[in-house]
Amino acid sequence: MAEPRRLLIIYHTQSGNTGRLADAAFAGARRVQGVETVIKRAFDAGTDDLLACNGLLLGTPENFGYMSGALKDFFDRTYYPCEGKLTGLPYAIFVSAGNDGSGAVREIGRIANGYGWKAVADALIVRKAITDAALADAAELGEAMAAGVEMGIF
């Protein structure tokens, strides 16, 4: 029997806003049968987690127009051990932004390009308050990512 396909959600939260989006994305992903969805805080995730996934959702608050230090730390710890091993890995981003979120998205995209990953959805940027609509959007993103991973369409 084949190993189940795995979606990995990695996030950092300081105020709790990005954590709420991550929980919503996780709940959405769990609607899809046949995919194991793993959710971890950025400081708790590592190389083994990354190498074992078939798709990746990255969540961060916008900090000074950039991603969180914790997510950057995750990249710093995993880049060289994973170099050349994850080409084409499908990924998407969600950002809780106090400003416009574009700096965080841009810089994550630059790092993802170095890994050889493939963006498969527009970034979900939630500005200011986390609304019910934003949580629904995060759940939809999680479900779409899990469905794509399960079907192998990315």
Shape: globular
What's the structural domain tally?
1
The description of the largest β-sheet is:
6 strands, parallel
Strand content: 15-25%
For the record, the CATH architecture stands as 3-Layer(aba) Sandwich
Note the gap between the termini.
22 Å
Q: What are the secondary-structure elements, in order, as H or E?
A: EHEHEHEHEEH
CATH homologous superfamily (4th level) name: Flavodoxin domain
The tally of strands reads 6
Determine the structural class based on helices, strands and strand pairing. Answer: alpha/beta
Please write the CATH class name: Alpha Beta
Number of helices: 5
CATH topology: Rossmann fold
Helix content: 40-55%
Please tell me how large the radius of gyration is. 14 Å
> Uncertain regions: pLDDT < 50 for 5+ in a row?
none
Mean pLDDT: 96
